[in-house]
Amino acid sequence: MSEVLDQLLELSHRIGLADRMAILGEGNVSGRLSDEQFLIKASGTELGTLTAKQLVEVNSAPILDGLTAGDTGDEEIEKLLLASRVNLDALKPSVETLFHAWLLKLPDVSFIGHTHPICVNQILCSPRAKEFAENRLFPDQIVYCGAESVLVPYVDPGIILAAKIAEMVTAFIDRRNTFPKTILLENHGLIALGKTSKQVEAALLMAEKSAQVFVGATTAGGPNFLPQKQVDRIASRSDEHYRQRMIESA
């Protein structure tokens, strides 16, 4: 547990203090401890100053069971979150624990980061969100954010959002035979998934850079996207993935 906790604190501090990624109580991080339990940021705490006591150990089973119940009221969701804590004296987990629990059950997903980056949200609050999610501008965006992102339409945070993410990620996996590295939530923010905390950090930072390039290219008469043939080629290049592993081990 201590290793996952330390990695989550480092991830939280790095993305919480990064320019344009999150302010105040925005965003959250989580890390898998086992098939039954994971750690997640407590509700209302700040990424940049997160402490060990503000990471809550929760049981996956009650959360996943709650997702099958469909839409419920705020009081029922709060009871579910409080009941999921391993230590009942711990702080209340984030309401977004619901989608973290489902995503952490995916193979090869051990860490998750969720932020509200300024440039990413400029696009997600515009009519061009689908265009940004489905296309790629430069090679590193493909390597770190994936050849395509899942785009989830805006729904209220809680069980409805978790269910919608599950639906759309499942459809993505069925179509592309791999889990997405990045998920875009319209009018809300960004989720990154990875085997390691470094993968998550890289995806979050590169997604925000990609959004800045997209917004800038739009004002200059573009953007000019990479052809799909080139996107697929870069996504499979061994040298690009070697470089990714080097960055993650630094």
From TrEMBL:
Query: Which key words are in the record?
Result: Lyase, Metal-binding
Q: Could you state one GO biological process linked to this protein?
A: pentose catabolic process
* SUPFAM superfamilies tied to this protein: AraD/HMP-PK domain-like (SSF53639)
Molecular-function annotations in GO: aldehyde-lyase activity; metal ion binding
Please tell me whether the keyword Metal-binding is annotated for this protein. yes
User: Organism's domain of life?
Assistant: Bacteria
Q: Which residues form the Class II aldolase/adducin N-terminal domain?
A: 7-215
State what protein this is by name: Short chain dehydrogenase
- Gene3D superfamilies the UniProt entry points to: Class II aldolase/adducin N-terminal domain
**What's in the GO CC field?**
cytosol
User: InterPro entries from the entry?
Assistant: Aldolase_class_II_sugar_metab (IPR050197), Aldolase_II/adducin_N (IPR001303), Aldolase_II/adducin_N_sf (IPR036409)
Annotated SMART domains: Aldolase_II
Database matches in PANTHER family: 3-OXO-TETRONATE 4-PHOSPHATE DECARBOXYLASE-RELATED, FUCULOSE PHOSPHATE ALDOLASE
Higher taxonomy:
Bacteria, Pseudomonadati, Planctomycetota, Planctomycetia, Pirellulales
Pfam families under this entry? Aldolase_II (PF00596)
